[in-house]
Every structure is written in structure tokens, then in C-alpha cells.
Amino acid sequence: MLLDVEPPEPHKTGHHKIDLIIGGSALFLSLVSLAIAVLHGHTMERMANANTQLVQANSWPFLQVTTSNEDDNGERLIALTVKNAGVGPAKIYSSELRYKGEIIQKWQKFLDDCCSVPGTSKLSYSSSDNASFGVVRAGEAVNILRVAGSDENRLAWNKLNVARDGVSFKICYCSVFDECWTTNGKTLSPTPVKTCEAKEEMGPQG
């Protein structure tokens, strides 16, 4: 006759629990290490982005257009000036000036059309060598038109003094990081654009 013999129960030493504790601890430490690595990666990415933004901010160009009718000594002098009031160089790819909706192509023609007075002297003008722009450094001002007043051209000069406020600008420029904007030179918020189309001739010529 066969007897059912119950096998003896193995003696519990507690090692299994220790193994579970050790394994669980290792898994926990691995998860903590993974979380720290992910957090560190995100932190470094944010720091890199912040550094990039800081560099771009420190290279930001900002163009302003000003007009005046006196020089530093109080003498009559009409001036149209483009100044880079930003902290980085501005690469100017195109500029368009208009008066009463018409593009100004020649300064002398503009002066004759807007301001000539029969029987009086023509207005003569001067402009900076870099009046066609290109790269304007931070803090640099470009005198694109200067017309001095005199007794001989007083009537025509007075007409120009009124007309100068009607000259509008459209300038497309980029930073050294090829971030680009268009501006009328009077706004505090230039319009961001993807790129600027370069033009062989920029602004009025002689």
C-alpha cells in the first residue's frame, strides 16, 4: 500500500526577503538616476536655449529714422538719418523711400518736384558715403540726405522743411544670426520676416 508522504517544508532563512529588498532598492535607485538624468538633460537644454537667446539679444539691431531741421549749432540744416539704436550690427538688404506714394529714385528730382521755387536757387544736397547702407554698426548713424539752408534757397528750403515729414521708409534688415525684420523706422515693433530680398540699388541715388 502506498502512503502519501508530505514533503518537509523548507526552512525559511529570510534570504529571499533580503534579495527582494536589494532588488527593489536597485530598481528604485535606477529609476531615480534615470529621472535625475532626464531632469539634468532638460535643465541643460533650457540653459542652452537661454544662452542662445542672450547672445541673440546682445546682437539685436534696431533701426530708427529721424529727421531734423537744425544742426548742433542751431544753423538751418534739414537731415534725414537712419540710426542703428540696437546693440548689434544691422545688415540692410533693401530700402525704399516714398513721397506722396511715389518711390524716390533720385534725390535731385525729388527736391525739384517737391520744393523748387521759380526764380530761386535749386536746393543742393549731400549724403554720407555709406548712404546706400549695407552694414550699419550698433550706434552708427547714416545721413542719407542733408540740405543746408541759405538766404538764396530760403523759400525752397522752407518747402522742404514741410515736405520732409511726408517721406516714408520701408527697410528690410537682418541681424548677424539672420533674424530679419521690416520697419518704417518709426515703430518700436519691427515686423519679423523670414528673409530679406537683396536689391542691387537701395534707396535714392544721385
Automatic annotation (TrEMBL):
Key word Transmembrane present: yes
Domain of life of the organism encoding this protein: Bacteria
Transmembrane segments: 20-39
Keywords from the UniProt entry: Membrane, Transmembrane, Transmembrane helix
Name assigned to this protein: Uncharacterized protein
